[in-house]
């Protein structure tokens, strides 16, 4: 039984009142619960309290959940319903929205040799020539184009908060991460577990800056913390946030990129969305001097171009090693302290 709980943080002090769904109330945080609604046990909070909680979560878990984030809960739920409708279509219908090239958006299925049992769809910003969005159900395109910029704006806000949590100069991360060309939304559909295997997504870390995950009510997301797999139960109105490898390297391990996985339940399909706020592939990544030379600490990683890291991860995903410990990950760039 897991003894830890991924923290849930109320983002309302950073969100204007006009951004709230009716079910969310600005300026409050729940005690001991993790859904999107407030009750009589709520207390007023400030921006500084939110920053402290996010900073603590990034140091200890690399994961946290947010409520009162400004994205309408009804819109999030509707996007999940439409995805469920799409994935229930016959394969031949879904494949009509497959990509014309590997870099394009559209529907894809994992090859049989991969351990992950899911099918998925890449969505890029509205108007992108890479998009291949389903025409059935007919509302799908409009909903995805509505929610995409909301996720992007929220990611920019989280980046600003993390910038302050790390004590970086104002707008440092925003100026460093100054290209939005590679942001994308991933719709995921997981098949029910069999009697022999239940892997939806094998254990991994995200390589980007920050990720949002929207789950349906099935569950299955788990985070590794001190050798223990912690479930992240779905909760109404909640978005899961996790830190990527890029921030772990930039902060020289101040903030962690946590290992996580998806375990498929028996008898149920699972739908989720993951929004990836991604660095430009040509960007150079290394521990910032704020956390190394400026304070007399050695760098924990050697520098690399982000595109080389991405290419290594893609190759590893399509050609998974026999042992998990041999997979390509950020440890590839870690500087050994032995000897």
Automatic annotation (TrEMBL):
Matches recorded under Pfam families: 2OG-FeII_Oxy (PF03171), DIOX_N (PF14226)
Q: Which UniProt keywords apply?
A: Iron, Metal-binding, Oxidoreductase
TM spans, by residue? none
PROSITE patterns cross-referenced by the UniProt entry? FE2OG_OXY
GO: which molecular function terms? metal ion binding; oxidoreductase activity, acting on paired donors, with incorporation or reduction of molecular oxygen
Fe2OG dioxygenase domain location, by residue?
181-279
Give the UniProt family note.
Answer: Belongs to the iron/ascorbate-dependent oxidoreductase family.
Q: What's the protein here called? A: Flavonol synthase/flavanone 3-hydroxylase
Organism from which the protein derives:
Heracleum sosnowskyi
